[in-house]
Predict the 3D structure of the following.
Amino acid sequence: MDEFGSLVERPDADSRRDSQERWQKLVRPADGLGKPAELADWLAAVQGHVPVKPITRPRVLIFAADHGVAALDVSARPAGTAAALARAAIDGSAPVTVLARQYGAGVRVIDMALDCDPAELPDEVTAHRVRRGSGRIDVEDALTAEEAEQAFRTGMALADEEADSGTDLVLLGDLSVGGTTVAGVLIAALCGTDASVVTGRGSGIDDLTWMRKCAAIRDGLRRARPVLGDQLALLAAVGGADFAAITGFLLQAAVRKMPVVLDGVVSAACALVAQRVAFRAPDWWVAGGATGEAGQDKALDRISLEPLLDRGVSAGGGTGAVLALPLLQAAAALSAELAG
């Protein structure tokens, strides 16, 4: 963990400045292209290249898991049913896969801790599974220390695989039951706030379910506070295999200078943990869309990221991240193809 602080570098400031100056010559008024130009400046910095190279190998990575805390009826979905969500993503019928086909992005589903027989899913999906479901974080650890490290290292290895295969933009997603409750615990703990401030409606819960969810986050928060100084221990205590893997992925992606688009509250929570490990890492990420979850707002504010889109898309699975892809593709195309 300590090594990431030195391994993660800032994106290329000279390329960002060159991109900004280039717009002064190409566009009148100079800020006439607004957000696409800003995104082109960011892409120039992360690519280290002006004009920006087109985005040709975008990839959606979806980390899937079940969380023990879902047994407290904190979700509109029954506990242990995230495998159904994963199957929809695998067979192409989920919103994220429909959009990915539209925008030319490949999709990869990674089972980190689904509560189902691995034989129900393709081998390439279950190859990295750490365990079946996770512990109930209000009363027990989500993972053992060994499982947390295994999941974290899996995330790192996946980042290396994607970087080595030529992926030039990752669109991060997650599929789980109980995941927004876990995210609420992590965000409340790292932002030093109360459970009620970060408890959202997640899968579309009613008021009674919201109260149960808030109580679960409050109880998890009590267990999180003693391990706040150790990010891996925090992920083991009140996270899960998907959270540990996403955190490892985000950090190694930053080391490999591979840009990432965050999705909803789960990826925002993992980004918050990763920032604690390497403060420069958020420079390699952008936030896709605002979901309306208070926890996401809190986490993104803490790491100084503003969502590219504000459409209240809370379907999860990477949907918000993929919706931001055409805006990033437009930014890259404008930089690459405008004469100047």
